[in-house]
Write a structure and sequence with these properties.
It is a single chain. The termini are far apart. The protein is globular and about 50 Å long. Helix 2 runs parallel beside helix 3, helix 6 (136-145) packs across helix 11 and helix 10 runs antiparallel to helix 11 (217-231). By secondary structure, the protein is an alpha/beta fold. The protein has 11 helices and 7 strands. It has one domain: Vaccinia Virus protein VP39 (Rossmann fold). It binds S-adenosylmethionine. S-adenosylmethionine binds next to helix 2 and helix 3.
């Protein structure tokens, strides 16, 4: 799958809000080593560096394009190309942080305990994933992709529910850590410009679909935009409200 850093960064301010909220939730910890799993262009890594100026910081990602952009940034961090699925650090990590990345991977019931096992004695695992797959921004993708014209090309790419309900993560991780907190937050983003919600998903969720369709992607987008303009009408002042729920997990070996 090919990422387009520029499209992803179009809503950088809005996308950074949950990153900041996740950092806030673990800011009382004093990690010596931090790994940003699925670091992308390094935006989340930069915020981690801001919070912990002295920590040993590594950004891990599998995308050439995203890491290329991250490496161009002035952040003091190491960048590692790896698939999170089988990434293993050389020594236990104090803070494994992952913002908006783990929903791209399957089998959370195996993946998350594996990550928890890579933590140091009082280490913490901090995760944020979208939990918006029941809203029109995401259901419209499934709906359009299931139409006759697209079905055979796109069926294999569809992942209607990549993230489980919040309480499921208590079961998945509960017995592997000493403390766990799970919560959701709904952000109401005020977006500007035409087809704002489609532009947002075009920078992330839609990437595999647009990549698979090539030149036909424009036709797919037009059908998708029509559905979204009903679900997310543009307001008189030109803005569009986009409500987006995100799931947060902080699992820790430390007892506070
Ligand atoms: C939406 S971006 C988030 C980037 C960054 N964490 C942020 O908050 O801006 C998701 C990133 O996860 C990466 N990713 C997805 N699946 C991955 C995998 N299996 N292994 C490594 N990175 C992965 C993608 O390449 C992409 O850069």
């Amino acid at each position: 799958m090919v990422w387009e850093p520029t499209a992803y960064l179009a809503y950088n301010d809005e996308r950074s809000l949950p990153t900041r909220d996740l950092i806030n939730a673990v800011r009382t910890t004093r990690p010596s080593s931090i790994v940003d799993l699925g670091c992308g262009t390094g935006n989340s890594t930069a915020l981690l560096r801001e919070q912990w100026p002295d920590a040993d910081l590594t950004g891990v990602d599998s995308s050439f394009e995203m890491l290329e952009q991250a490496r161009r940034s002035p952040i003091d961090a190491r960048w590692e190309t790896a698939d999170i699925e089988d990434w293993t650090p050389s020594s236990p990590v104090d803070l494994i942080f992952s913002n908006a990345a783990l929903h791209w991977l399957n089998h959370h019931e195996e993946l998350l305990p594996r990550l928890a096992a890579l933590l140091s004695h009082d280490g913490a695992l901090a995760i944020q994933m979208p939990s918006n797959f029941h809203r029109p921004s995401h259901t419209a993708i499934i709906e359009v992709a299931s139409r006759v014209r697209w079905k055979s090309k796109l069926e294999r790419l569809l992942r209607p529910q990549p993230v489980s309900p919040p309480e499921r993560y208590l079961d998945i991780l509960g017995e592997h850590v000493r403390q766990i907190r799970v919560w959701t937050t709904t952000y109401v983003h005020v977006l500007h410009g035409e087809h704002a919600v489609a532009n947002w998903t075009g920078g992330a969720t839609l990437r595999p679909i647009l990549g698979a369709l090539g030149d036909e992607g424009a036709d797919f987008l037009a059908e998708y935009q029509t559905m979204l303009s009903e679900a997310y009408p543009r307001r008189d002042d030109g803005t569009t409200l986009f409500d987006f729920t995100r799931l947060f997990i902080v699992a820790s070996n430390r007892v506070s």
